[in-house]
Design goal:
It is a single chain. The chain is an alpha/beta fold. Helices cover 28% and strands 22% of the residues. The strands form three sheets. Strands 3, 4, 5, 6, 7, 14 and 15 form a seven-stranded mixed β-sheet that branches. Helix 5 crosses helix 6. The longest helix is centred in the middle third of the chain and has 15 residues.
Length: 345
């Protein structure tokens, strides 16, 4: 198969021929029709993720495609099915999975991290009966691929972990794929959204996604700017980027008894969270890690009903030949970039 791989952390990302994967007895091989360019893949390429232990490695963790083959123990799926998957692939049998919390599975696998990912023509997925999600015929693969990481992550972070309510102020720090998704979801829930970014192009996309107030972080003290705009601070604030600066700004954006949700992955090193404010204002600091496959139904129904439009967040589509360069320069093009491995050849 054709795939993008690297031999050294931070080294060249090149397109090469690699062996096709085979399904595990409980797994499936997916013919990739679309896969997303995500900052998490950049972190993996840079060596920030301890799950990547063997090189060469193929990135890519949010995907949609067609079941190519299934293992002997798979009951619910046959070749030819249109599917997507969550980026956290659960085992289905640990204590967390038994409680319905597959997004924190104790034996989880993640394509693009624990094993070769979806910047390729084919990818292997473990425990197919637990992790595959049907994609309706009317949904494009490019749309479906963006659900498995950024859109589903944002949906759970805003609607479930953050428990957004109509009329609340929501601040979203970082208007990349996750941030734009969060803005769209919070707006659909009836919240008032403040978008925070250092890019004017990203803030323009945030307005299209539903934000009504804007803070350019390059102007200084984004937290104070959000508190002034909202007359006291956001009820809910999300760090969708993942840096010490955006994490601190998100916490400092909150009003008393506000909720901070950390979604963006933080690279190694200290993150000086203002704990005096957390204590004095009784803030809640929450983490959110994807969404289990069984929890997709409400989100898929909102997309089907035309309430949510994840397709509108896609700003470019590229082939595998351009994927390495795009990952190396991630953040330089606003919005969501999708890779379609089968075109151009």
């Amino acid at each position: 198969m054709r795939a993008v791989a690297f031999d050294l952390f931070g080294g060249e990302l090149d397109l090469r021929e690699l062996p096709d994967p085979s399904p595990a007895p409980h797994g499936a091989v997916i013919r990739v029709e679309a896969t997303g360019l995500c900052r998490s893949d950049w972190h993996g390429w840079q060596g920030h993720d301890p799950d990547i232990r063997v090189l060469p490695h193929v990135p890519g963790h949010e995907l949609a495609g067609v079941v190519e083959a299934v293992g002997a123990d798979v009951r619910d799926w046959l070749p030819g099915a249109r599917i997507t998957v969550p980026f956290v692939c659960a085992c289905g049998s640990c204590t967390s999975c038994a409680a319905g919390e597959q997004q924190v599975c104790e034996r989880q696998t993640q394509p693009g991290f624990t094993h070769w990912g979806s910047y390729a023509e084919y990818v292997a997925i473990d425990h197919a009966d637990v992790n595959l999600i049907p994609v309706p015929e009317e949904m494009a693969y490019v749309t479906a691929a963006g659900l498995g990481c950024r859109f589903a992550t944002a949906f759970r972070a805003i609607a479930q972990v953050g428990a957004v309510r109509p009329g609340e102020w929501v601040a979203v720090h970082g208007c990349g794929g996750v941030g734009l998704s969060a803005i769209m979801i919070a707006t659909a829930a009836g919240a008032r959204v403040v978008a925070v970014d250092i890019s004017t192009d990203a803030l323009q996309l945030a307005e299209q996604a539903g934000a009504t107030h804007f803070v350019n972080g390059s102007a200084g003290d984004a937290g104070a700017q959000v508190r002034e705009l909202t007359r006291g601070g956001a009820h809910l604030s999300l760090d969708a980027l993942g840096s010490a600066q955006t994490c601190v700004a998100s916490v400092e954006s909150l009003r008393r008894r506000g909720r901070h949700v950390q979604v963006g992955l933080l690279p190694g090193g200290a993150t000086p969270v203002p704990m005096d404010r957390v204590i004095g204002h009784e803030l809640r600091l929450l983490g959110s890690h994807g969404m289990a496959a069984h929890a997709y139904a409400p989100m898929m129904e909102m997309i089907r009903a035309g309430i949510l439009h994840p397709d509108q967040l896609v700003t470019r589509t590229i082939g595998l030949a351009d994927a390495g360069k795009a990952l190396a320069s991630i953040g330089s093009v606003p919005g969501v970039t999708m890779i379609t491995p089968r075109f151009p050849l």
